Amino acid sequence: MKFLKNIFAFLIPLTAMLITFSIYLLIDNVVVNYKQRIANDYSIVIITNTPLIKENINTLAGIDVEKIQTLKKNRIINNIKSNLSDTSIKLLKRKLPNFYQIFLEEFPTTTQLEKIKNTLLQNKNIRKVEVFSKDHNQTYLLLVLLNSITFILFFIITIFAIIIIAKQVKLWFHEHSTKIAILRLHGASILYSASSVLNYAILSSLFSFIIVGAFLYYVSSNMMVIFPYELMDIIDVKIDFYNELFKLFILSFGISLFTIIGVLLKYKINND
Amino acid sequence: MIEAKNIYLSYDDNKYIIKKGNFTIKQKEFIFIGGNSGSGKSTLLKSFYGDIPLKHGSLKIEGQEVFGIGGKKLRVLRKDIGIIFQDYKLISEFTIEENIMIPLKINGYSNEVSRDQANKLLAHVRLSHRAGYYPNEISGGEQQRVAVARALAHNPKIIIADEPTGNLDDYSAEVVWNLLKGANEQLGITIVVVTHRVPKNLGIKFRQLSLEDGMIYEVS
Fold first, then answer.
1. Do both A106 and A210 map to the same domain?
2. Which residue(s) pair with A103 in the sheet?
3. Residue A77: CATH number of its domain
4. Percentage of chain A surpassing pLDDT 70?
5. Which of A182, A186, A193 would best serve as a mutation to test chain B binding (most B beta carbons within 10 A)?
6. What ipTM, to 2 d.p.?
């Protein structure tokens, strides 16, 4: 009980930070999954004077080009040939420019779309670019916004958490100052002297990681807790649980160690 | 061996507590440092284990210059020294046995070896029956015997004691003096003791230094 009381002020901010991080991870996963889904259905159509050399376009606005598909001229002519004579069709076949469909690996944002269009139009060979910006999905933009807000929230909570955790570590140092001083006088290193403080921090991080890991497991198996059914119908909500758990582990122990090392360094500078 | 040449010590730059300190303490010597309250005896002792930095001069402990010492060198120096404080400085959350194990564990000995050595020393200071007790559960005299055992645990080259019997009754004081005497005679450990009262009938050859107005004098 005394131990829990001792680690409470460390555990709470760290857990709050990790929960915010896990929510961010969930939303980020939703965005990535959704992005992937709509990217598969999305393509840009370009019209060129001469045949396009596919190797010349590998990336657009930093996004990898997945494939470039040639749109068969016959298919285009078939759609309009009922009103045309054979001579006109032959002429059309000769004069018709080349049509391509570009598939991207990721779904671009509106800004990226604009950049893609400008990049393509700089190419003298390209006559027209259709990015279908009107089809650009509003749900996606809302999800990106939500993702950014969650990240900002996580960032702010992390700053406050680090401040509170650092204060708690300083308090532990103060509580153990006699012990630390005695051990130092006997030639112990600062890490050895402060091992009890380190133990507190490691155990707090472990508890926090277990709590948030359980939370993530529960939420990942019951997505409807945070996402409405309607959204789940249109978005594929699934996460790589072990991968996200690993990220939580790294963050939990990383933040604790980062804070402890900071306080230790300050202590060392003041006392050596 | 401790060799001080023209040392100056102070807590601030305005007033020197020790001025022009010159003395040599040879190996296996038993030294008493006397002087009035506030004369700087404890300050001088603290400078031996780098707890107070030297302002000027040179102080060598076992060949290691203490002036400007820090980091790993200071840790190594402290590992060669056993310290006994007037207020014992035992760690309250450790048992008596664990307190004696401290210098051994810091010196890299395993738990098993450290525990074994601690129990031998507990028997030597006649406190085996208190091994599992915590410092606040034993008397002041017993705590000081534990502190002596801790100072002896890792077989240091020098033992520094700051008023080791200052808070003790006659019986406990005698036990502590006998332990220090034994460490000097049998183990050849250099002993430096700061005290107001040099014990009578110590039965050992010793030298005495005295501090007055920041100066160090040889008494006998």
1. no
2. A43, A67
3. 3.30.70
4. 94
5. A186
6. 0.88
